[in-house]
Amino acid sequence: MFSVSLEKILSQHGKITDTDLRYYTHEIRELERYRAFGYSDTASPSDESQIWNNAHTATLEDYKLGSELTLLYSEEAISAMNAQDQREYEKDMRSFEQ
Q1: Which of 8, 40, 62, 73 fits a 20 to 30 Å CA distance from 22?
Q2: From CA 8, how far away is CA 4, in angstroms rounded?
Q3: Nearby residues of 45 by Cβ (< 8 Å), 6 or more positions away
Q4: Which superkingdom, per the lineage (predicted)?
C-alpha cells in the first residue's frame, strides 16, 4: 500500500492527502531515529521491539498526533491491515488445531 500510494503521488496520478502527508512525514522522522540507533535504510527494528515503540511514540509526539489510526492511514490501508491481521489469526488458529 505504502509504495503504491507514493508512486501514484509522485507520478501525479494521485492526489496527496493530509493523511498521506502525515504518514510520510512520520515515516521519514522514524527513519531518522532508526539511523541514530545505527539501523541502515534497508533494516528496521521489529514492530514489537522497544526501539520501534520508542521511535514511533516519540515521532507521534513530535507531530502532536494521537494513536488514532486514521491520522496516519487511509481507510483502504486500515482495511488491508485488518484483513492481514485476520489471515494471520486464522493461520495461528489452524496451527493450534493440529
Answers
A1: 40
A2: 6
A3: 34, 37, 39, 51, 52, 55
A4: Bacteria
